[in-house]
Structure formats: structure tokens, C-alpha cells
Amino acid sequence: METKKKLMDSAFKLFAYKGNEFSLAEVASEVGIQKASIYAHFASKEELLYAVIDQEINQYFLEINEHYRDLKSMFFMILNYYDRSQTKLYFWKRLLLFPPQAFEQTLIAKIHILSEERFQIVKDIIRANMKEGIIRNQDPETVAASYMALIHGILSSVIIYQAENVTIHLEGIWNNFWKGIC
Q1: How does pLDDT run across 73-85, given as a tens digit for each residue?
Q2: Which long-range contacts (CB under 8 A, 24 or more apart) does 38-41 make?
Q3: Mean pLDDT across the stretch 94-103?
Q4: Which 3 state secondary structure label does DSSP give 47?
Q5: pLDDT, position 163
Q6: Which residues neighbour 72 within 8 Å (Cβ) at sequence distance 6 or greater?
Q7: Domain range 52-181, its CATH number among 1.10.357.10, 1.10.260.40, 1.20.1070.10, 1.20.1250.20
Q8: Fewer CB atoms inside 10 Å of the end CB: C or N, the chain?
Q9: Structure confidence at residue 64 as a pLDDT band (50, 70, 90)
Q10: Domain boundaries, the chain
Q11: What does the buried/exposed string (b/e) look like for 132-142 if buried means 16 or more CB atoms within 10 Å of the residue's CB?
């Protein structure tokens, strides 16, 4: 089981930095095994990559969607999820910008469904906050879209600029957003 995890970790990293252009020989070399040994765990590169992507999708969406019911906590949880590993950020950017075509009908569709669920959670939180008078009445769809765009913009900024130059401002960025919707 440890070898399987090492294979998946290696494929995760290689996909993050190289996309589909990585080879099973590179995975084997990184893990310290012969390429043929990979086939004891995965029938093909596609099966390995599918397992890696599916695991990451489940971890990312379940961790955040199920545990956070206020906008600020979710905001910081999403950003901290990526802050723990720049490789995760590269992995997701590559997956969303250049998805493996073989998985378009399965994993990419799953990401879209889970993203829509997250968007609905955000809208529900916004509506509840409006009902309680915490957020001023406005179009919840627009506020939710602004919220998600803010998060994705910050994540792109972390790639473009050094993470430290962006993350030191997160509390101020959050406060500016919050003041704008309240």
C-alpha cells in the first residue's frame, strides 16, 4: 500500500508541474522502482492519473464543503488549502486549464457538479446572512460570483507573485470584500 501511495504522490507532483507530459518511467524513477512494478498497482498511466485526480477532488471538496458554513471561514479554508502546498495550487490550475481529455466526461464533470454545489452553499450562506441583516439585500448570485472570483483571483496572484507578498494581505482583502457587501 505504501508503494501505491508513493506512486500517486509522484504522479500528483509530476502532473502539477508537467501536465500529461510526464511518463511512467519518471514516476518509477522518482519512487525508486522499476517501471514494470507500477503495473502491479495501476493498469496504465491513465488509471494512475484518474486515481490521483479523483482522490484530490474528493479531498478538496469534502474538506471544505462539509465543514464551513460562514463565508470568512470558507474563504480562509480554501486559501489555506493551497497555501499548504504550492504543488496543489499548480495541480488544480493545470487540471482546470488543461484537463486531460480522457477524463472530461467523468472527473471534469464531477468537478463541475461539486463546484456548483459549493456555489450553492455560498449562495445559501449569503441568503441567510441577508435574512439576518448581516449582509445588505442584493443579488445573492452576484455576491457569490464576486466571492468566488475573489478567491480565484487571489490563487492566481499567488502563482504570479510570491505567495508571501499576497498572503500577508489576506485579512485586509477579506475586510475590503466584507465591507463592500455589508
Answers
A1: 999 988 888 877 8
A2: 38/7, 41/3, 41/4, 41/7
A3: 88
A4: helix
A5: 64
A6: 174, 178
A7: 1.10.357.10
A8: N
A9: confident
A10: 52-181
A11: eeebeeeebee
